[in-house]
Specification:
elongated; two-stranded antiparallel sheet; disordered N terminus; about 270 residues
Amino acid sequence: MNIGLSSQTERWRMFSVKPWGRNLIWPLLVLGLNLPGDVLAAVDLPAVTVTTDDNGNESYGVSIQILAVMTLLTLLPSLVIMMTAFTRIVIVFAILRQAIGLQQTPSNQILVGIALFLTLFVMAPVIEDVKTVAVEPYLAETMTPQDALVSASGPFRSFMLEQTREDDLDLFMRLAEHEPVEELNDVDFFVLVPAFMTSELKTAFQIGFMLFIPFLIIDMVVASVLMSMGMMMLSPLIISLPFKIMLFVLVDGWVMIMGTLANSFGIAL
């Protein structure tokens, strides 16, 4: 018992404040409480300001702009998934891996990386338009942040409208009780995004279904051959996997898949 108490006491001594530390804490605390006001004001953050020009346009201070940029950075992954070609590409890759019968090869990191760079390839014209109509004028200080954001949404709106089915767009317009529009560009942005996502999911599963058929045929042929040979205890997946990989390599499957995905977005290769 004495040994346990002594060891406990030593541990408390290790984490306790040393006498010289206690002698420094109080002077520092008193010094901080008695700092002059001008010294404390020097470290204050800039005030949140909203100014209005002669035309009634509001411009926000630097603090609000920084807050908006930091918030946008946290939403950037969701924007990449919901407003670009990433969703269709990564779903097709995942279905392809499942159709071949490979559970962990290629890994999720590799598939996401390939999908990300293929998305950048597909979205390159849109990104270039955003740079021209929004980023460069904003950096040149000829456009306000609000106008730059509205201008940047234009190329993305055009891209999503080209890939969205009319039935999906009509569905979300009815759900949102959106008024009829004369032109598609007048559709509300927050109605267009879910309609675009629904269309992307449908297109991705259609492409995945077409990819699944040849590999499914190989599985059925191998299973029937093994059953006719009486080898019912042997898993057909073990035998069919090499044949599916060989078929995929012989037809240059990766090039065909990436070319098909790029063509599905209207990019001629």
